TrEMBL record:
Keywords: Glycoprotein, Hydrolase, Signal. InterPro entries: Alpha-L-AF_C (IPR010720), ASD1_cat (IPR055235), GH (IPR017853), Glyco_hydro_b (IPR013780), Glycosyl_Hydrolase_51 (IPR051563). It comes from the Eukaryota. Its EC number is 3.2.1.55. GO terms for biological process: L-arabinose metabolic process. Belongs to the glycosyl hydrolase 51 family. It comes from Adineta steineri. It catalyses: Hydrolysis of terminal non-reducing alpha-L-arabinofuranoside residues in alpha-L-arabinosides. This is non-reducing end alpha-L-arabinofuranosidase. It is an enzyme of class 3 (hydrolase).
Length: 399
C-alpha cells in the first residue's frame, strides 16, 4: 500500500485477522533504514492459499505489478512514473533494495507443482530489468540454479541443536542460502515431529534462545554460503495477534525484548569479518586429531563455539553456547600470541539451578532474563571463563 493513510481501505489478512495497511511499502522500507536493517522484499508469484496457480500465459499482469513496486522503490524520480510518485510522497532518493524473494514457501502443498514455471517466468523478466538485485527462490526442489534460496524452520530446541552442521555439506556450487524464518516455537523436544502441537510457547525462553544460538553459530561458520538469518516473526502486538512466540512484543505502553532478541543482540553487536581456526580438546582429543566437521571442530560435547576477528579494531570475538545441564570451564590459548589484555564477556543464562525453559521475558515480567557482563583477562595469550549451564556467552578481547 502507498499513498495517504486515509485512502487505504485495508483488507482481510492473508493468514488471519485484518490488515489496516497503515504500515505500507514506504513505511516498511523507511523503517528498515531507520533501524539499520537490510530489507528483503517478497512478491506475489502467482499462487494463492486456495491452492490455485495462475497459468503461465496469464502471469504478465502480476509481473507488471512487481515492476511497478520495484520501480517505485529503486528508480530515479527524474524519468520514471512510479519513482515520481515516490518523490511526491516525500522520498526523493531511491531505496537500497538488494534482495527480492519470488513467492513464499512454495514447497507447501500444490505450490511445488507449478513453481518451476512461475519462478522462471518472473525471474527471467525481473533479473534482466534489475541486474543489481539478488532474486531468491523459496525452494530449489523443482528449479535449476537459482541465485539464492530461502529456508524456513519452526521447531523445538533439539532440532536446532542437532542441525548445527546442517549447512557444512551443502554444495558450494549451488545457490546461496537465506534462513528467512527460524524460531523455537515449542520447548518440548518430544514434539519434534509436531512442533505446532501441545506446548506451543507464548514467549521465547532461555532454552529456546540458547538452542537458536547453536543454529546461529552454524550460520557464521558457513557464511561463505549463508548470507542471512532472520528470527520470525519480529514484531507482535500482544493485544491483536494470531501467532506466538515473537522476537519483540509490544502494546500501546510497553515493549518486551525476548530472550531470543537478547541472544541475537549479543551476536549481532559482536560480528567479526574473518573466521579464525578454532578447536576444542579434552583428555581424549588433541588439536592435531581434530578434523573438519568432527568432534572438536565447532563443538565438543554440549559446548558449541566459533572464533572470529574484527580487523578494523583487532578484536577477537569468541561465541560460546552451552546446552549442558552443568557449567563448563574453558581454558583458552590464542595460538602464537603473547597478548595481555582485558576484555568483556556478555552472558545470557537462566541462572544456576534454574530450569531454562521456565525463564521468559513477558509483559508481566519483562526483565526476567537480561545480558550480564564480566571482565575477561588474557595473559600471554591465555584466558579462561566458566560458561554457565544453558547459556550464551560472547567474549571480546583485543589482540
Amino acid at each position: 500500500a502507498v499513498g495517504n493513510l486515509e485512502n487505504r481501505p485495508g483488507r482481510r489478512g492473508t493468514w488471519a485477522g485484518y490488515n489496516t495497511e497503515g504500515f505500507g511499502l514506504i513505511e516498511l522500507t523507511t523503517f528498515a533504514e531507520d533501524i539499520g536493517a537490510v530489507p528483503i522484499l517478497a512478491v506475489y508469484a502467482g499462487y494463492s492459499l486456495d491452492g490455485k496457480a495462475v497459468p503461465q500465459d496469464q502471469l504478465q499482469p502480476f509481473i507488471d505489478e512487481v515492476v511497478k513496486e520495484l520501480d517505485f522503490l529503486t528508480a530515479s524520480a527524474n524519468d520514471n512514473r512510479m519513482a515520481a510518485l515516490r518523490k511526491q510522497l516525500g522520498r526523493s532518493e531511491p531505496f537500497d533494495i538488494r534482495y527480492v524473494e519470488i513467492g513464499n514457501e512454495d514447497w507447501l502443498g500444490a505450490a511445488i507443482n507449478t513453481y518451476d514455471y512461475r519462478w522462471t517466468t518472473f525471474y527471467n523478466v525481473l533479473s534482466k530489468r534489475y541486474p543489481n538485485i539478488t532474486f531468491i527462490a523459496t525452494t530449489a526442489k523443482t528449479i535449476n540454479y537459482p541465485p539464492a534460496v530461502d529456508d524456513h524452520f519452526y521447531q523445538v530446541p533439539l532440532f536446532f541443536i542437532e542441525n548445527f552442521r546442517r549447512y557444512e555439506n551443502v554444495p558450494r556450487s549451488g545457490p546461496r542460502v537465506l534462513i528467512g524464518e527460524f524460531a523455537v516455537i515449542n520447548d518440548d523436544d518430544s514434539q519434534i515431529t509436531n512442533p505446532f502441537g501441545p506446548g506451543r510457547l507464548a514467549y521465547p525462553s532461555i532454552k529456546s534462545a540458547v538452542a537458536e544460538s547453536v543454529f546461529r553459530i552454524g550460520f557464521e561458520r558457513n557464511s561463505d554460503i549463508i548470507f542471512g538469518g532472520c528470527y520470525a516473526p519480529i514484531l507482535q502486538n500482544i493485544d491483536n495477534t494470531q501467532w506466538t512466540p515473537s522476537f519483540i512484543v509490544f502494546n500501546t505502553t510497553s515493549v518486551v525484548k525476548s530472550t531470543s532478541y537478547l541472544a541475537q543482540k549479543m551476536f549481532g553487536e559482536n560480528l567479526g569479518n574473518v573466521i579464525l581456526y578454532s578447536a576444542a580438546t579434552n583428555n581424549t582429543i588433541t588439536h592435531r586429531s581434530v578434523e573438519k566437521g568432527q568432534e572438536g571442530d565447532g563443538k565438543l560435547g554440549n559446548l558449541y563455539f566459533i572464533a572470529t576477528k574484527r580487523t578494523n579494531d583487532n578484536t577477537l570475538i569468541v561465541k560460546l553456547v552451552n546446552v549442558d545441564p552443568t557449567d563448563i570451564l574453558i581454558n583458552a590459548q590464542i595460538q602464537g600470541s603473547t597478548t595481555s589484555s582485558t576484555g568483556v564477556a556478555y552472558i545470557l543464562t537462566a541462572g544456576s539451578g534454574v530450569d531454562p525453559s521456565t525463564v521468559h521475558n513477558t509483559m508481566l515480567n519483562p526483565n526476567a532474563a537480561s545480558i550480564t557482563e564480566q571482565s575477561v583477562s588474557a595473559r600471554n595469550g591465555t584466558w579462561s571463563i566458566t560458561v554457565p549451564s544453558w547459556s550464551v556467552v560472547v567474549v571480546t578481547l583485543t589482540l
